[in-house]
């Protein structure tokens, strides 16, 4: 619970920091995509096409008794309506999800269409992995030449990442790298190999032209 993000208001600095991270890689998002922390029910409804999202109200402290959700109508201005994230997750996991979902948004807004799941989920997982690396291993050589990683998102709400939070981040990085699923796991490993060899920009250009990752010879 020490870094859990419980409501949308608390998540805004992290969300803006990750958008800055994208901008630092020359991947600015052209649309202000709304972001909401929601309950499990709202995620399930969104998956089946529900447009009325139950927004968690801003809360003080950890008082959860007697809370009520507030219906919020989302207006579709383009193909990317909003990013929804389950509330109550650790800050680094929330950020990893936001980094992943923002990449989906960036691909849509930049005209990438009809990508197979391995390619789209794989490259989105790479951005999630890169952001986590920048948070947990700030002294390591990052593939993102940006100072956004050292933004205000680098500390938890209590100021400064604890050893527990760093260990959590290392675990989330390990989870991405060793995911067994074809799209998220296999896709990530193929995408990561391409980005390591050719760089993110060249890999994205190749995906735009071919719909596939550039070939990495072993």
UniProtKB/TrEMBL annotation:
It comes from the Eukaryota. Pfam families: DA1-like (PF12315). Residues 140-157 have a biased composition (Low complexity). Signal peptide: none annotated. Residues 52-210 form the Protein DA1-like domain. Residues 140-162 are annotated as: Disordered. GO terms for molecular function: ubiquitin binding. This is Protein DA1-related 2-like protein. It comes from Gossypium australe. The lineage of its organism: Eukaryota, Viridiplantae, Streptophyta, Embryophyta, Tracheophyta.
């Amino acid at each position: 619970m020490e870094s859990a993000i419980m409501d949308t208001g608390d998540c805004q600095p992290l969300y803006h920091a990750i958008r800055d991270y994208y901008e630092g890689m020359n991947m600015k998002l052209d649309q202000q995509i709304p972001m909401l922390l929601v309950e499990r029910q709202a995620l399930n409804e969104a998956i089946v096409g529900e447009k009325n999202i139950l927004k968690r109200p801003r809360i003080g402290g950890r008082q959860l008794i007697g809370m009520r959700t507030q219906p919020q109508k989302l207006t579709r201005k383009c193909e990317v309506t909003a990013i929804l994230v389950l509330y109550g997750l650790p800050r680094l996991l929330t950020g990893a999800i936001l980094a992943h979902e923002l990449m989906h948004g960036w691909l849509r807004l930049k005209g990438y269409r009809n990508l197979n799941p391995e390619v789209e989920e794989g490259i989105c997982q790479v951005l999630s992995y890169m952001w986590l690396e920048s948070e947990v291993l700030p002294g390591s050589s990052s593939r993102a030449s940006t100072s956004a990683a050292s933004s205000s998102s680098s500390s938890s709400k209590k100021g400064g990442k604890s050893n527990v939070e760093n260990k959590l981040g290392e675990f989330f990085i390990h989870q991405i790298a060793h995911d067994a699923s074809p799209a998220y796991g296999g896709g990530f490993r193929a995408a990561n190999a391409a980005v390591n060899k050719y760089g993110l920009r060249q890999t994205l250009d190749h995906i735009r032209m071919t719909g596939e990752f550039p070939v990495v010879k072993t």
